[in-house]
Amino acid sequence: MSNPVPGETTAGPEAAPVPHRDTEEPAFPAVADRSQWRYRPRRDFWRSRVFRAVTLITVLAICALVILALVREQTGTEGFLVGLGLAVFPVPLLMAAFRWLDRVEPGPWKNLLFAFAWGAFAAALVAILANSFAVRWIATATADPASADTLGATVVAPVVEESAKAAAVLLLFLFRRRHFGGLVDGVVIAGFTATGFAFTENILYLGNAFGEDQEFGASGLGSVTAATFFVRVVMSPFAHPLFTVLTGIGFGLAALAPRGKRLRKVLLPIAGLLLAMGLHAAWNGSATFGGPLTFYAVYGALMVPAFGLLTWLAVWSRQRELRTISGELPAYAAAGWIAPAEPLALSSMRARRLARSFAARAYGPPASRAVGEYESFATTLAFLRNRARRGTAGPDFPAREQELLHHLWQRREVASPALTYAARATGRVWAPPQYLDYGGYNPYRS
Q1: Helix count (H) and strand count (E) of the chain?
Q2: CA separation (Å) from 10 to 16, 305, 339, 444?
Q3: Is 144 left (phi over 0), alpha (psi -120 to 50) or beta?
Q4: CA trace torsion 38, 41, 44, 46 (10° rounding)
Q5: Letter string b/e over residues 45-55, b meaning 16 or more CB atoms within 10 A of that residue's CB
Q6: What are the residues whose beta carbons fall under 8 Å from the beta carbon of 38, sequence distance 6 or more?
Q7: Which residue, 348, 381, 355, is CA-closest to 370?
Q8: Residue 144: pLDDT above 90?
Q9: Rounded CA gap, 392 and 386, in Å?
Q10: Under 8 Å CB-to-CB from 438, ≥6 apart: which residues?
Q11: Which one, of 238, 252, 387, lies nearest residue 316 by Cα?
C-alpha cells in the first residue's frame, strides 16, 4: 500500500486534513510557542493556578465548616457522628460508578473533587439557608405552618437544591470547557455534585432520626434510624444523582452543539434543570401528599424506569466515545502518525489496560505511565477531530491537533509496541507474532 500524500485523510470529506508525518517529526511552526500549549500529562495539572486553587479551597472549606456546624447543631454531636458514619456508605459506590463511565477520556480528579465538594458544602449550605428562610417567610405570610412545610418540600426545595447543584456544572462548563465535551462529562460532573449533596443531606436526616430514637427509646430494625437508612441509603441512593444528571445531560448536549448555536447552548441546560426540578418535586411530593403506597408507586413507576433509562443512556454514550476513537484515529494511522493496530487497541478499555501492564513488565513503571499518557492524548485527539468534523472545535484546531501529535510522538517508542501487542492479545487484530514489532521485547520469542 502506498503512503498517503501530505494532507490526505481517510476520515471523510468533512474532516480536516491530517498533517502527514515525515521520517522525523515536523517542526510545527503554528505551535512553536509551547508556553501556550494546553495539554499536559495529568500529573502536571496540580502545579498550576496555585492562587486560584487556594482561594477556591478556602471558600469551600469555610462553607464546609459552616454547614457541618449547622448540621451538628440540629442533630447533636452524637447524632452527627452516627449520621456521618451511615451517610458514607453509598458515596464510594456512586463515585466509582460515575468514574467508570468517565474512563474513556477521564477528566482531571480536581474537577470531580470540586464538584463533590461544591455539592456537599456550598450547595448544601445554600439549600439549608434558603429553604429555612423560604419556609419561615411562607409560614409568616399565610399563618399556616403546615402548608408552609408542604410548599417548602414540594416547590421550594426542588428549585433551590437543583439550582444550587447546577451551579457546579455551570462553573465547570464555563471555566473547564476543554474537559467538558459531551454527555458523559455532563453526567459524571452532575453525578459527583449530587453525590456530595446527598452525603451532607443524609447526615442531617440520619442524625435527626437517631436523635428521635434516643428520645423515645427506639432501637433495632423498628427504629426511625433504620427506616431512614433503608429509604435513603438502600432504596434510593441514586435519587439526587438522578435529578441532577438531567441537568448534566442538558449541559452535555449544549457542549455538543455547533459553534454559533447560542440559543441552543442556553436552552438545553435550562430544559435539563427544569426536568430535574420536576422529577425532584414528584419524588418529594410522593412522600408528602400520600402514604407509603403512593411513595412506593412513584418509586416503581417513575424513579426506577428513569434510573434505568439514564443508566442505559450513560453506558451508550460511553460506548459511543469508544466508537469515536475507532472511527477518527485511522486517519492518523494512514498519515503515518500511529501504528495501524493502535486505533483498535485504543477503542478497547481491556486492550488499554493490557498495554499499560505490558509496558510495566517490559520496561518498568515509567513506561506504563508513558503509555497511559499516550492513551489519554490519543483519545483527546480523536474527540478533537470529531468536534472539528461537527464544527465545534474552534479556529485553533490545527494548533491543538499538532500539539497532541507532538505529545504522541514523544511517547510512541514505548506506547506503540505496547498497544500493538494489546490489540493482538485481545483479538482485535491478527498477525503472526514474528511480523509484529514489540519494540525489542517479544513475549512470544523463546
Answers
A1: 17, 0
A2: 10, 41, 15, 33
A3: beta
A4: 90
A5: eeeeeeeeeee
A6: 178, 400, 403
A7: 355
A8: no
A9: 9
A10: 362, 417, 420, 421
A11: 252
Mean pLDDT, residues 276-300 taken together: 86
Assign 14 to helix, strand or coil: coil
3-state SS string over 234-266? HHCCCHHHHHHHHHHHHHHHHHHCCCCCHHHHH
Among 267, 205, 420, 244, which Cα is nearest to 333's? 420
The C-alpha cell of 282 is what? 414528584
Contact criterion met (CB below 8 Å) for 439 and 359: no
Exposure of 433 in the CB half-sphere (CA atoms within 13 A)? 8
* pLDDT tens figures, 228-237: 999 999 998 9
- pTM check: above 0.85: no
Contact 195, 94 (CB under 8 A): yes
User: CB 4: neighbour CB atoms within 10 A?
Assistant: 16
**Three-class secondary structure of residue 364 per DSSP:** coil
Q: DSSP class of residue 392?
A: -
How far, in Å, CA of 228 to CA of 217, rounded? 16
Query: By the 8 A CB rule, do 125 and 161 touch?
Result: no
> What are the cell numbers at 417?
509496541
